[in-house]
Each structure stands twice: as structure tokens, then as C-alpha cells.
Inverse folding.
């Protein structure tokens, strides 16, 4: 089986992430969406909240699994027997960071390759922080995130 890992903070998961995931699913038999646990990075939502809302958002999407992991993504990929890691690229500003990350991954696991998918134009401005900023200031973000994420915001507000 041709398996790929799509890792990220997903804090929260947006329709930009969903677009990359859907396109990755046309290239691979199965994709594991991996919520990266980074204790040194301040997050809006807990790992548990991110995993649960992602599972809800992707419940009807076949060939997808949601998991979380603290440590190197390549170690998770190795453990699962995955040879590819998916990442998305928006603007040139993403490139430098992603290139460095890809080089570090190659250093740690030369047998695993990164696959980059370019953001669709309608999602090129969408990031977790942009969504969060809009949402916090009362903008309607329902076209930018899956409804499970809207419910997560709602739950957090109460
Ligand atoms: P990280 O903190 O690991 O960068 P993110 O959740 O911000 O995690 O993003 C995960 C991956 O998805 C990254 O490769 C990022 O560039 C990509 N991504 C984020 N938003 C979009 C978008 N709107 N379109 C395409 N790719 C995106």
C-alpha cells in the first residue's frame, strides 16, 4: 500500500489543509494526517481537541487516518512504513522554511521523500493564524474551515 503522512500543527485545520489532503489522496492509497505535538510551541487548541475535531471533519473521507506524534515525523513515517511526507506550499515565504525542513528530514531519513503540493489560488491566503485572527474579530470564517472546526471554536467560546 502506498501510504503518505501529512504532518502539521493544524491549529486549527483549515480548508487549505483539506485541499492539500484531498489532492494527496489522489496520489496515495492512504494518508495519515499527523498532528505534531510541539511542547515548545504555544498552541490555540490542545492536541486532543485538534485530533478529535479532525476525526470529526474527516469522518466521511475514505482512506484517511488521524493521529498525533511527539518527535520527528520521519520516525513516525518509518514506524508506519511510509516513504512519503506531504507538505503544502503557499507563497515563496513558505519555501525557505519547507526547504530547511526537507533538508533536515533528508539528513535524518534519506529513504523518505517529501512531496510538495501548491496551494490552490482560493486558499493561498488561508493559514491557521489568519483564520484565528478573523474569527476572534467576529468575521465569518465558515467558508475557510470545516464545520467541525467551527464547532470547536464555538465550544471554546462557551
Ligand atoms: P506547521 O506548523 O507544521 O507548518 P501547519 O498546520 O501550519 O503546520 O501547516 C501544515 C502544512 O500545510 C504546511 O506544509 C503548510 O505549508 C501547509 N498549508 C497550510 N495552509 C495551507 C494552505 N492554505 N494551502 C496549502 N498548504 C497549506
Amino acid at each position: 500500500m502506498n501510504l503518505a503522512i501529512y504532518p502539521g500543527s493544524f491549529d486549527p485545520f483549515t480548508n487549505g489543509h483539506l485541499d492539500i489532503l484531498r489532492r494527496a489522496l489522489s496520489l496515495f492509497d492512504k494518508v495519515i494526517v499527523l498532528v505534531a505535538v510541539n511542547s515548545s510551541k504555544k498552541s490555540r487548541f490542545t492536541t486532543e481537541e485538534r485530533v478529535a475535531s479532525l476525526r470529526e471533519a474527516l469522518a466521511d473521507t475514505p482512506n484517511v487516518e488521524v493521529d498525533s506524534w511527539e518527535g520527528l515525523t520521519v520516525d513516525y513515517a518509518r514506524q508506519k512504513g511510509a516513504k512519503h511526507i506531504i507538505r503544502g506550499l503557499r507563497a515563496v515565504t513558505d519555501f525557505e522554511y519547507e526547504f530547511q525542513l526537507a533538508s533536515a528530514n533528508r539528513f535524518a531519513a534519506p529513504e523518505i521523500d517529501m512531496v510538495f503540493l501548491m496551494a490552490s489560488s482560493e486558499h493561498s491566503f488561508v493559514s491557521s493564524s489568519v483564520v484565528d485572527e478573523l474569527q476572534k474579530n467576529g468575521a465569518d470564517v465558515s467558508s475557510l474551515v470545516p464545520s467541525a472546526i467551527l464547532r470547536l471554536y464555538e465550544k471554546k467560546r462557551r
